[in-house]
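Course exercise 7: structure representation. Students receive a sequence record and must write out the corresponding structure in token form. The form below is the worked example handed out in class, using GNAT family N-acetyltransferase (242 residues). Read each field label carefully; the graders check that inputs and outputs are placed in the correct fields and that the protein name is recorded exactly as given.

STUDENT ID: A-19
EXERCISE PROTEIN: GNAT family N-acetyltransferase
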Amino acid sequence: MIDIQLKKFFLRDPIKFAFEIYDSEIDYEFTEFKIANEGYLMIYRKINPITIMLYGENENTVTKLLSLIKEDKFILFIEPKWKYLLNFSNMKIYPEILMICKSPKVFRREDVRRLTVKDSDKIIELYGKDRGGFVVQMLRDNKTTAYGLFIDNKLVSAAYTWIETKDAGIIGGVFTREGFRNRGFASSVVSELAEDIVKRGKIASLYVREDNTSAIHVYKKIGFNEYWKRLWVSVNTDAKPL
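STUDENT ANSWER:
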């Protein structure tokens, strides 16, 4: 578990630090913190590749924290202003935008509904064995909220929450099957999921690649606005954001 001062720091911005709050409280057995001055590394080992969150307010702190990373393969999340300090070999950098929504415009359709464990086979068929199995397990553990759109009893578009805290629900896994894209299905799924999150007193949020202009357009249409930016840095791995 994290110390009280660090927890208080995260609660100053529970949207920006939602992953830190969730991982340190819910998945704490997989989470390790390394502290330097006013900054920290949060190393999360539950999934492969491991993920590392880095926060620091000055160059010396960030440089020190970067030197504490000993892993060979990982995904690093860091603020864009520290890009010039990154010198990992075989790294790929993807700028991301955190968007939030407090009052979604819902593009309601009768064929969109909340997903349950009874939809396990359809979820795995849509996302594949690994990602689909991950979503199904989260549904079983009551750790996610998922919505999907069905055509002829076939799941063709879906989205779910990566994590949910007291203050935020972070949406991820937005995916529409080939052959059903550009028909507004993702707008309906994401907007109904966002509505569900907001109705429970949370802020709906999501990360999107800065160069994914079509997705950003869809999210803005629903009511999402830019809140913060970060870099997804993939080191010695092919992993990249959607």
